[in-house]
Amino acid sequence: MKTKYIQQKTVLISGLIIIFNLFIFSNLFAADIYVDQTLSNNCTSQNYSILKRNCTGSDGNAYKTIKAAVKVMNAGDTMFLRGGTYNEIQIYIGEWRNGDPDNWYTVKSYPGEWAIVDGQHNPDPSITWNHSVFFGTSQSNQNNYIRFENMEITGGGYDLGDPNYPSKSKGAGINMRGRHLEFRYLYIHNNYGST
After folding, report:
1. Rounded CA gap, 123 and 44, in Å?
2. CA-based angle 29:34:35, to the nearest 5?
3. Phi, psi at residue 182, to the nearest 5°?
4. pLDDT along the chain (195 residues), means of 10
């Protein structure tokens, strides 16, 4: 009888350890990714220095543009935008899927800094569609788990005075559909679309 009790207890403890490890393991590979427009080149060997803002440290990977960082993000990662203005538009986040309640995609300003993402109302004539700053193409029932916080988003849309693009001028700050989207402490303004 005592042996059976010990076996049951061992199985119970082993099961709890496995469940605990699965919970910890799911967040084990979450990364902090930095975007810093002051970089001369991307830091892709885990050698970004938060303090020096160059590739001589060990704080993780960093990229010069938001678009470059978006391409390497996985569910659970946090993208920290260093302070300053990023003149980017049409930042495609449509591949951000498979998030879950414990693994959000997060884009935010670095603590104590304020990032501005300014699409400049699309000065690039090669972009002829979707003039939003951030956009995604997920289905409305897609579980995205995406969070934007602590930043400014402006300059979505094409110049309304251009007669060649009257139907494509309503780019928004964030234009996407899906489920489990959070927007916290954002200043979204002066975008031609309101999506």
Report:
1. 29
2. 145
3. -125, 140
4. 60 54 54 97 98 98 98 96 96 83 96 97 78 79 87 87 61 87 95 79
Best CA proximity match to 118, nearest among 178, 37, 34, 32: 37
What is the rounded CA–CA span in Å between residue 128 and residue 91?
A: 14
- Per DSSP bridges, beta strands 134-135 and 61-63 are unpaired
Euclidean distance between the first and the last CA atom of the chain, given in angstroms as a whole number? 67
Residue 114 has phi, psi (to 5 degrees) of -130, 120
DSSP tag of 166: G
Contact predicate 132/170, CB 8 Å: no
> What predicted TM-score, i.e. pTM, was given to this entire model?
0.81
In order of 36, 80, 109, 113, 188, the CA distances from 47 in angstroms are 13, 15, 20, 21, 33
